[in-house]
Design brief:
Fumarate Reductase Cytochrome B subunit; about 5% strand; 4 helices; single chain; about 180 residues; mainly alpha; 2 strands
Length: about 180
């Protein structure tokens, strides 16, 4: 497709944006799956500790990818929204910015809760340690952990709505909203 305008946006996301989207999706899914699986293992077991390690590192990888993903979005923008009611476009935009807020806030809150409990995020096998963002604070740990867990629970709904909206656009409206992320 040729266009002589300087502000032309293709009708789909570019490959890097798609890679960021699906990589973050996989790490978010891994973090949620690890938390759900953790409950099946007895406290103090190696399996439970492994589930927590997977949860923590998946969360940090979400945060690591969130930074370049947001920068890429701010620089490159997004494809134009599909035609439709202004309210639908506004809701879609609000949903995307809420998801961006989540991929930054949720891992940061998890890391802060860990640090407040006097722990560092470590992967000893690779010699990796994430520096503490705050000093230990037992009173604050509980509050941060509660917010982290509440947001995590609420985001089952937000993530579900995001997926349902994509499927609604694809199957009910027949537009290219979902296809833009599958190039």
């Amino acid at each position: 497709m040729r266009h002589s305008g300087l502000h032309f946006k293709p009708p789909h996301y570019n490959r890097l944006a798609i890679l960021f989207h699906w990589a973050i999706f996989l790490f978010v899914a891994a973090a949620y799956a690890a938390m759900e699986l953790k409950g099946f293992f007895p406290k103090g077991s190696a399996s439970r500790a492994l589930a927590m390690t997977v949860h923590e590192w998946a969360g940090i990888l979400v945060l690591v990818l969130a930074v370049p993903r947001l920068l890429w979005r701010l620089v490159g923008g997004a494809p134009p929204a599909e035609p439709g009611p202004a309210a639908m476009r506004l809701l879609g935009s609000a949903m995307h910015w809420l998801l961006y807020l989540y991929i930054f806030a949720q891992p940061l809150l998890g890391l802060l809760a860990l640090n407040a409990g006097g722990h560092l995020l470590e992967l000893p096998a690779l010699g990796l340690t994430v520096p503490a963002l705050m000093a230990p604070d037992a009173a604050l740990k509980g509050a941060i952990k509660e917010v982290h867990e509440t947001i995590g629970t609420a985001f089952y709904l937000v993530i579900g709505l995001h997926a349902m909206a994509a499927l609604f656009h694809h199957y009910m409206l027949g537009d290219n909203t979902l296809r833009r992320m599958w190039r």
